[in-house]
Design brief:
Two copies of one chain form a homodimer. With about 270 residues, chain A is of the alpha/beta class. The first copy, chain A, has ten helices and eight strands. In chain A, strands 1, 2, 3, 4, 5, 6, 7 and 8 form an eight-stranded parallel sheet that branches. The longest helix of chain A is centred in the middle third of the chain and has 18 residues, at about 100-120. The interface of A and B includes residues 50, 85 and 218 of A.
């Protein structure tokens, strides 16, 4: 709560509403433009990354590429980051089995520096939580410091699918990191037909610092080429709905840019 | 004409109808599926490359990336192939000023070998004619031999926008190459409203070996994000038209696969 008090928001319900996977498809970028919400993060290896323009954009650090297409490649040469055809591994398991931490660090630095050529990033998060392996989490938190970009850190690891052997060390790293932790909300796995109910239910949350990750995409043929298009469209239609907007308007809308500004003195 | 005689097509009108820029967008791939024509080539650095499936696919060797998005990066590390943000240069001029031939060779080999992981390529051509600089043309023709992939070689360099200083050496290389040369047709630069007329006019061509490059793309929001969408859609609508199909049916349809087979004995 220290951050909220510093921001004078100690007793409020505060929400960072975050658009994941920008730069991956035209449909994802189109939803970002159509919704008019400032905060999201960009998959820099994505072909549509240079087209994202916005007020509060971060780097959606990418180490996996889970669909047949669009399929993404690392920016750097690390052999432990790619499959036989040169793409990122398609699963977290394959990544975590092979990835060498020094090659991950080189790749993440390249993604951050490429992002800085495209826009002015405010924060870091990771695609599919690829840095949950503790030695990669250490890299993630160290780069956040090095580049002065606020990293997403959830307030609990429960329900995030972290492999049990990673938990103690990951929890220790997160507890020691000099960054705020957020209550992580993510409707991705809910059935699309329950999406509107999920968003309307936010009205009942108590005060606190919430982070809501959504994956909104426009209903287009390209958007629907992704196997999980239905959950992306469900986010888009819900967040475009006036009743959901009315619920969201009851929260103080926080940006990572404002958080970064508040932490200004704290960067090592 | 030697090739046509070997194929028993000496007096015929023979057409390789070629779909350029596959793998660049979902709309381009979608048009390839919808038209059901076998021959085209894939931009391997494109995010949609792994989704292309077809009977006569080649490698659309890529050294430039001319749109703000989708924007493509080299597969290899060569500094002379990328701009400050790590993308291919956006113009041929910028490419030709900077590109080192040995870095081009490494990149083109990587694209061919990555393509071989995705499909079974039959031929080579190049995006925007990036290998017209003579030392790069030498690499292109050498790799065609090395990988046994038939390279596109036009029967004349007139009207292709080759910088005059490149012409003598380029003409010599092409004349010496042990590959068939084709009469190159490309409606890309024609106004879209003249496209149907262009295709219908093919009915009046004399016998010979023709190569027609088209850039068909579906009329979708993603397809229309490309500044040149109108010419791509014009190709798509023309080639989907029954009257154009009737004109095309008067040609013997040739694939690069058949050409490759006919050249079998000739590979050094």
């Amino acid at each position: 709560m220290e951050l909220l008090e510093r921001l004078g928001l100690g007793s409020r319900r505060v929400l960072i509403l975050h658009h994941d996977d920008l730069g991956l498809t035209h449909a994802q970028n189109g939803a970002y433009s159509a919704l008019g919400l400032p905060t999201g993060s960009v998959m820099v290896p994505g072909a549509w990354a240079p087209a994202v323009r916005g007020a509060d954009l971060g780097v959606h650090l990418t180490l996996t590429s889970e669909w047949q297409a669009p399929r993404l490649r690392p920016l750097t040469a690390g052999e432990s980051l790619r499959d036989e055809a040169g793409y990122f591994p398609s699963t977290l398991e394959a990544l975590w089995q092979r990835a060498r931490a020094e090659e991950v660090e080189r790749e993440l630095r390249a993604q951050i520096e490429a992002a800085q050529r495209l826009f002015s990033p405010t924060h870091l998060d990771t695609h599919q939580g690829a840095v949950m392996r503790p030695d990669l989490a250490e890299v993630y938190l160290r780069l956040a410091q090095a580049y002065r970009l606020v990293p997403l850190i959830p307030d609990t690891l429960e329900g995030l699918g972290v492999p049990p052997p990673f938990l103690p060390e990951l929890e220790r790293l997160m507890a020691e990191a000099p960054f705020p932790r957020v209550r992580f909300l993510d409707p991705y796995g809910l059935p699309p037909e329950e999406r509107l109910g999920f968003y309307l239910g936010l009205a009942h949350l108590p005060s606190g610092l919430y982070y809501l990750a959504h994956h909104s995409a426009l209903p287009t043929p390209e958007g629907r080429a992704l196997p999980d298009w239905a959950t992306r469209e469900a986010d888009y239609f819900a967040l475009a709905h006036p009743e959901v907007r009315r619920v969201l308007a009851e929260f103080h809308p926080l940006t990572w840019r404002a958080v970064r500004e508040a932490l200004k003195e704290g960067w090592r």
